[in-house]
Amino acid sequence: MSVTVQNLTKIYGAQRAVDRISFQAKAGEVLGFLGPNGAGKTTTMKIITSFLPPDEGVATVCGFDVSKQPMESRRRIGYLPEHNPLYKDMYVREYLAFIAGLHKLANVRQRVGEMIEMTGLGREQHKQIGALSKGYRQRVGLAQAMLHDPDVLILDEPTSGLDPNQLADIRKLIRQLGQEKTVIFSTHIMQEVKAICDRVLIINRGKIVADDSIEGLQRRIAAESAVTVEFEKMPPKKALAGLPHLRELRELGKNRFQLISGPEADLRAAIFDFAVEHHIKLLELHKEVYEIDEVFQKLTQ
After folding, report:
1. Closest CA to 36 of 215, 191, 220, 206
2. Residue 125: helix, strand or coil by DSSP?
3. pLDDT band at 77, cuts 50/70/90?
4. 170 and 237 belong to one structural domain
5. Rg of the chain over CA atoms, in angstroms?
6. What is the pTM (predicted TM-score) of this model?
7. Are 73 and 180 part of one and the same domain?
8. How many CA atoms lie within 13 Å of 122's alpha carbon, on the beta-carbon side?
9. Could you give the count of Cα atoms lying within 13 Å of 91 in the half-sphere of its Cβ?
């Protein structure tokens, strides 16, 4: 249960929307697929789901080539596109039963009921889709993507339009699905990346510029490591400035300092030992880290 992309390329006129990218998404992980508008995310997703043919390269889903074996690969994919295409004149339960029929599922009533419960559509199941809020229409889209129990889920902006309570529910659901399925998750909401994703893939101008964990990306772009500390009383500054690996000591206020080292060093243990040695209580001790939105901006500017 995995998605493999090798040297994938898609060209529109003089523009390479996707430029020889390669990556793999494995079962049991949620892969965050990020990039600015026009970076090539949606094009890549449409190629993987057989909506678009590649100009070069190969994409496989669970071992099936999406170009040569499109029906086999599609059976193993659940897809929620960015612009959720729904039949708005149909009722929620009616629509899901219709989709279940297309997949030729057995026990349609049971499976539709399971999806309604899983996505929190119980109170809305007898309404017309066109009468639903955007958040609930997204839930219907998620339900149809998961209806046939696919091995791979490809979700393009799945949390768009959800309120905070709905966000919490859908985050939990995607994390649960990611424990056993391959999930590729595209979003512009950086908080969603931190909350849901195990690994992050960033694409810019058709090329992959990063493929790592969030922590790995933060370390990768950090030019320095900064630790902020506040002591109960003024420490001996000369001794504090003599800590190993310390590049710079910045005084922030009364008994409060920022200690700068190289990105490979973490001064927190040394500061703790310093406080114990000098019998000074610590009121604050934390390491400054880049937020994921800062990482994204640095890698895509």
Report:
1. 206
2. coil
3. very high
4. no
5. 24
6. 0.77
7. yes
8. 4
9. 9
